[in-house]
Structure formats: C-alpha cells, structure tokens
C-alpha cells in the first residue's frame, strides 16, 4: 500500500500483528551465524509502473514498519533482519525483507509463520478496526528454490480510502524473504502476474 494512504487508513492496524503466539520463540543464542548476506531486488525488478519509474532505497538493518500491520517479529527469535524500500513518484511503494535464520528447518517454520500471518491478516484487521473492511486472496505457490507463495490484501475504510497490497513469502535454504507491493485501489489494480515474477526473482536472487 502507499505509505501516505497507509498512514491515514491503516495506522491503527499495526497492533493487529501483535496477536501472535510464541510458537517460534527460541533463545537469543539461536541467532544465525554471520555468513554471506542475501541480495535484494533492484528497482527495475519491481512490477512496472505505467507512469513512474521505481527508486530503490538503501539496504537497512532491522525490520520495516511498513510490514507491521500484517507481519511482525513478535514471538520470533533474534534473527538477522534487513530490508529495502522502493518508491515511485506517485502513490505506489514496495518493500523487501530478508531474514537469515540459523538452520533450514528454522527458515521453513518462519516462512510458514509469516504466510499464516498474511493469510489471516484481513480477519485481524476487521477485528481490530470496525471501520475497515478487509479481504484477502490466495494467488498460489511459485516453484522457486524452496518455494514461495503470493497473496493479496484489499482494505477499504468507512470514509472511502481503499488500498490494495500484494505480499509474498519465499525461502532459499535458511533465508526467508517477504516482499510487499501496494498502492491505492482494489484487486483489479493489482499486477499479480508481474508481482509473481518479482517474487520469483527475489527468492532466486538471494544467493
């Protein structure tokens, strides 16, 4: 979703991501050992925008707040989190998160955990914000590395603000990546095919 619209329409939704159990909780010592850092998407690998080019921000340590209304670090070990934000000159934005875990088994569990959070995000939004209607859609799995899945999320407020987001979770070995694209609109405005290509590129490009 656009950062501007998200601020007005979904600012109250971040807390919905905190209703997560501790199924993945592990000692801090489980943090991944230092290894080659995963690579990130470039601006040209995002779904093409019809009226503006993409600009890529720097790769930054930590967890992006843009994912906070659907995905969070609650109940997750202190893994190696890094992210990169992308912008257009208009109301479209994107972000990629990479998480390096300690083992392939931990990464598999984390990927499922994040996908479950995205799958249930619409319900959590509606439960926490009566003024927002939300709908999620499943766009299926992608056969890249250890696999990826693409989902969509549409939100509309009682005052008429509507946003559409595409989110994906993929895994390569012990590394998980989450990609989100968003703008104003509805499912008809979502570039699903292009986003699937972006997701496959993101997972394949990690190493």
Overall description:
The chain is an alpha+beta fold and 207 residues long. It is built from four helices and eight strands. It has helices at 3-9, 104-119, 121-128, 192-205, and strands at 55-56, 60-61, 80-87, 92-100, 132-142, 148-157, 162-172, 175-184. Strands 1, 2, 3, 4, 5, 6, 7 and 8 form an eight-stranded antiparallel β-sheet that branches. Residues 1-30 have low confidence and may be disordered.
Individual helix count: 4
| N-to-C order of helices and strands | HEEEEHHEEEEH
| Overall pLDDT level | 87
Count of beta strands: 8
The share of residues in extended strands comes to: 25-35%
Shape descriptor reads globular
Structural class: alpha+beta
Percent helix, as a range, is 10-25%
Estimated radius of gyration: 16 Å
Low-confidence stretches: 1-30
Biggest sheet, in brief?
8 strands, antiparallel
Q: How would the blueprint of this fold be written?
A:
Layout: H1 3-9, E1 55-56, E2 60-61, E3 80-87, E4 92-100, H2 104-119, H3 121-128, E5 132-142, E6 148-157, E7 162-172, E8 175-184, H4 192-205
Antiparallel strand pairs: 1-3, 2-3, 3-4, 4-8, 5-6, 6-7, 7-8
Describe, in short, the structure shown.
This protein is α+β, with helices and mostly antiparallel strands. It has helices spanning 3-9, 104-119, 121-128, 192-205; strands at residues 55-56, 60-61, 80-87, 92-100, 132-142, 148-157, 162-172, 175-184. Strands 1, 2, 3, 4, 5, 6, 7 and 8 form an eight-stranded antiparallel sheet that branches.
């Amino acid at each position: 979703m656009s950062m501007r619209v998200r601020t007005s329409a979904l600012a109250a939704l971040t807390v919905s991501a905190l209703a997560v159990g501790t199924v993945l909780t592990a000692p801090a010592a489980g943090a991944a050992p230092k290894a080659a850092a995963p690579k990130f998407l470039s601006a040209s690998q995002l779904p093409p925008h019809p009226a503006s080019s993409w600009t890529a921000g720097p790769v930054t340590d930590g967890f992006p707040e843009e994912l906070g209304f659907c995905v969070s670090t609650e109940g997750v070990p202190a893994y190696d989190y890094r992210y990169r934000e992308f912008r257009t000159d208009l109301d479209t934005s994107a972000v990629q998160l990479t998480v390096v875990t300690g083992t392939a088994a931990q990464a598999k569990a984390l990927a499922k955990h994040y996908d479950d959070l995205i799958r249930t995000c619409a319900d959590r939004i509606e439960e926490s914000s009566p003024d927002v209607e939300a709908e999620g859609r499943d766009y299926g799995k992608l056969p890249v590395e250890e696999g990826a899945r693409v989902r969509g999320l549409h939100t509309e407020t009682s005052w008429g603000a509507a946003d559409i987001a595409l989110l994906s979770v993929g895994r390569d070995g012990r590394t998980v990546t989450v990609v989100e694209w968003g703008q104003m609109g509805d499912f008809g405005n979502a570039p699903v095919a292009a986003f699937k290509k972006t997701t496959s590129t993101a997972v394949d490009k990690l190493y």
